[in-house]
């Protein structure tokens, strides 16, 4: 017998709860049920507002009270719905009974049979999911994503002129600036941001097999497609006219692929920043009272970036799984999507947690300009590329009789450490025009950064 009460199984509901709880507002079971109540109520109001089947519009005060059911869906109401579901063993049917009870309390029994009218559960479910996923993405995930981009952009601008040795293949390579490198990530993330901001949230509302058969049997003269479109779009969603029982979930697959892609770009950022910290390019600002290593007192470990890396991997794995499985459903429906979609919050939650750690991590680093400069000063051989390129231009212009500039430079520099003086002597002895020689002699690893600083303009 355990001394513990039931414990949260997921770390998102345990140690990381404070960082991701905002998502639970929308993507928890309660959030989903609240949206289901909203959709059932709106359908009821729609039907009565249009006086269908001899009904009359619900008086405004009672409409207001019905519309309060969703925002007022609290702990007691969750328990009541849970009790209903323990009898129905059907989650959406339980919501229908819950709404019927409230109608009865409001003296609206005469329209009780219009609750869930002609709807299959998926009609309610798909609209509810579209609403909660839309709100979770636009109100929680995107703001956190934008916060990372904004912080990165600020640092890209701050460090746009700070020359840094590049390391293609991990080896000293043509210098760049720290700001330009961060700007590359901003540019990539901005594309994802725009895609996610433009995401479509589709909804279907067409009955058990998407044919409006039940609707037509109740009223054969009504343009039920027009009703369906008007109702779906009134919720701020895009109407999907042609489906089986279920909304086909293609929009979800698209959205999750975009978010997973964003995760992977962020993962690349985390491992790069981790490496820059490891090289000493970024210094970590000590947090008062915090312990780096339990045994090595000198250390500050880059734990925010490592935590983010792990959470991005988990998020992407879940998002990939969702994107793959949600687009298939046997024949007109199977229930795999019902079970799978319950994990959308978990998938976005791991990404949200990573975003909050990246923002925090970026706020705890500062550029070590001395080390960047020192590194450049000990790698003059990176100018070999510039010298070779100038010699080629001089040969072409007829100002040089050198035959194989690449071999010449390779001989001088490959795998060797050469200093400013060695290089100056080499350039001085080159058979090239005077202007080109002066240009080369003026070059240092610090200034051989091309238009790095100007490239940062692309993210402004
Ligand atoms: O409108 C309908 O219900 C039509 C019915 N299809 C269903 N559509 C949507 N939900 C259904 C369906 N069937 C079951 N359930 C209920 O789904 C819940 C599945 O639970 P879980 O696996 O935990 O996600 C769980 O609560 C199930 O009871 C059909 O026969 O085509």
TrEMBL record:
Positions of the Adenylosuccinate lyase PurB C-terminal domain: 329-449
Cleavable signal peptide: none
PROSITE patterns: FUMARATE_LYASES (PS00163)
SUPFAM superfamilies: L-aspartase-like
Family annotation (InterPro entries): Fumarase/histidase_N (IPR024083), Fumarate_lyase_CS (IPR020557), Fumarate_lyase_fam (IPR000362), Fumarate_lyase_N (IPR022761), L-Aspartase-like (IPR008948), PurB_bact (IPR047136), PurB_C (IPR013539)
Domain Fumarate lyase N-terminal: start-end pairs: 14-308
Origin: domain of life: Bacteria
Keyword DNA-binding: no
Protein name as catalogued: Adenylosuccinate lyase
Alphabetical keyword list: Lyase, Purine biosynthesis
Membrane-traversing stretches: none
GO function terms (MF aspect): N6-(1,2-dicarboxyethyl)AMP AMP-lyase (fumarate-forming) activity
Entry's Gene Ontology BP terms: IMP biosynthetic process
CDD domains with a match to the protein in the record: PurB (cd01598)
Organism: Agreia pratensis
Biological function: Catalyzes two reactions in de novo purine nucleotide biosynthesis. Catalyzes the breakdown of 5-aminoimidazole- (N-succinylocarboxamide) ribotide (SAICAR or 2-[5-amino-1-(5-phospho-beta-D-ribosyl)imidazole-4-carboxamido]succinate) to 5-aminoimidazole-4-carboxamide ribotide (AICAR or 5-amino-1-(5-phospho-beta-D-ribosyl)imidazole-4-carboxamide) and fumarate, and of adenylosuccinate (ADS or N(6)-(1,2-dicarboxyethyl)-AMP) to adenosine monophosphate (AMP) and fumarate.
Pathway listed: Purine metabolism; IMP biosynthesis via de novo pathway; 5-amino-1-(5-phospho-D-ribosyl)imidazole-4-carboxamide from 5-amino-1-(5-phospho-D-ribosyl)imidazole-4-carboxylate: step 2/2; Purine metabolism; AMP biosynthesis via de novo pathway; AMP from IMP: step 2/2
